[in-house]
Model the fold of this input.
Amino acid sequence: MGSKNKLKRFNENDTFHNVFQPKREDLVDAVYPLKGQWNQQFFKNNNPLVLELGCGKGEYTVGLAERYPNKNFIGIDIKGARFWRGAKTAIENELPNVAFIRAQIELIEELFAANEVDEIWITFPDPQIKYKRTKHRMTNDAFLKRYKNILNADGIMHLKTDSEFMHGYTFGTFAWSRARGPICQPRCVPPRRQPRRSDRHSNLL
Done:
């Protein structure tokens, strides 16, 4: 994508009512106004709140919102030029239950209050296979603790991956965490058949 197209999308994002682009310092140095208030202040209902982390173009977020109109969905990604497409589609299709946030996932606890979130989806994340990239894996121990802090007591995290490495690493992280004292209790839904690498899917937390 050319720089002109990126700039055009960034500017258009600023006009979308369903896109939020807080500055890092606004999240770190102050309490974000919508933290703990997403349903009351933006969605205007008490429906379950569902996040997609690393949402990319936002097609999965929009697809879930269309399928489950009685849930609220927020896609989060640091690259706003990507989720521009999802945000625009949600507006064009008049979907009131979709929003997007441009932010780093590591700041998720600055965006959402404890127990505010009902579900988290992580769809086909980069497995970050190299050891030096461990801190960037979206299911490492530090990230799982953050997710647990914002999920309610019955909250679920869904991992959808085509990487056997990522699938195995995530379950290994749970086992390691439980050995130290569990940060969460994994809940897995076994498939009815052996999953293909293209659709390996687990429900965790």
In short: Helices lie at 3-13, 24-28, 38-43, 59-67, 80-92, 108-111, 141-150, 164-180. Residues 184-201 have pLDDT under 50 and may be disordered.
